[in-house]
Automatic annotation (TrEMBL):
NCBIfam families: TRAP_S1
Protein name per the record: C4-dicarboxylate ABC transporter
Key words, A-Z: Signal
Gene3D superfamilies referenced in this protein's UniProt entry, alphabetically: Bacterial extracellular solute-binding protein, family 7
PANTHER family on file: BLL6794 PROTEIN, PTHR33376
InterPro entries assigned: DctP_fam, TRAP_DctP_sf
Amino acid sequence: MHSIKLPIPTGGARAWRRTLLLATLPLLAFAVRGEAAEDRIELRLADSLPAGHIIAEKMTKPWMKLVGELSDGRIDFKYFPAEQVGKAKDMLTLTQTGVIDIGYVGPAYISEKMPLSAVAELPGASTSACQVMQAYWSLAKEGGHLYANEFKPNGIRPLFVAALPPYQAVLGSSRDIATLKDLGGAKLRASGGAQHMTLDKLNTVPVRMAPPEIYESMSRGTIDGTLFSFVSVESYKLTSLTKTATVGGNFGTVIVAYSISERKWTKLPTEVKQILSEAGDRIVESGCKAFDDEERAAADRLKAAGVRLVAFKSDDEAAFIRVADEVANAWAADLDKRRKPGTATLNAYREALMNGR
């Protein structure tokens, strides 16, 4: 073992203390840097969204930035977009097992494990992204109906949620759509579940396919169109193929919850949990407004590009609402039969929508 010998200075005790301090400063600096490095927290976040997707640009990236600001840089992220870690259907498992810390959990992709969350994807109940997101968020947070009955049993908790603006019927065929009845027989891509039930009741042919396949299918005439928000029409480059689209209705939507495992959550310091929670509340509020603004702007751009936007008249609107109610009630009854709280979830969601208006 080697000892460090300091030269004995002249000038008495004060000079000796100064020499000792200068000798130990590098060690003190190293200790401070080491403590700061250990104090930093890096979280791995993954999703399946393509570059430029509205959820990533208006919510995911701003949320990470906000967390960094609230924590003064203490919390940092490694972001893995575009299925770099896994596909959308795998995100729940990847989050539960700790392969990633925060995952993009889309209930539509794992309906067997999170069937109740589809309540926010039902048609007809809302007319804006803010209505959907704020109602769903109030139920998904700790203490909420969906947290207790869906997130907690799966060992995860949502940090923030996102819902696309309500879907419209977007048609690329030359079919002239003026009334609800005119949709009969049209082959429309839908994401499954309630959207399929809705199209069935409207005598429309639902076709299930992944979003990246829509462009080719519409261009070839394999399908007549799709159920999509207008921002998604632009994201998937469908503007040039679109001839007609409905406005003012709600054929459903897609909800996702960026979630962390309870096991990881319990290991985080209290102040970190508070920062993540505050950032979640703030980004849901700002993100939903940005989504609704973008949807209105996208509608204007579609109209400028020659797309005919059709608003159903009062009789058709009432008929659509009746169909939407039938779909919602059937959805709830089916879950009740499976010993899941379908009706209780539907009632809780409808109440949350009313409270948010």
